[in-house]
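Hmm, what's this shape?
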Amino acid sequence: MCPMSNNQILKVTEKESRAPSELKSALEKEKPVIVHELDRNVLEILKNQGPLTRSKLVSITGIARSTLYDSLLRLILKGYVARFSEERRRRGRPKVYYKVAH
């Protein structure tokens, strides 16, 4: 089963039928609600401590790495968190940071 974001799930009743362009503009105005308490905590940590790597978030929260990754993915899909990499001048993988999206 493929995970879907709240932007992909639409409820249209028989009384309230909108044109596709109206639905798109309505979805863009509304931000999905954060349901999981863990997601709220991760978002709060990112707000207070700035951009952090996944390993730093694991050490701060003390939760399992896979659980944290799931939380970050939900927050990214809902538009609350952004992911970026630092530029590397040496060999190897660049560090990936997560920050609050504005």
In short: The chain has four helices and three strands. The two ends are 30 Å apart (CA to CA). Residues 73 and 81 are 9 Å apart (CA to CA). The mean pLDDT is 78.
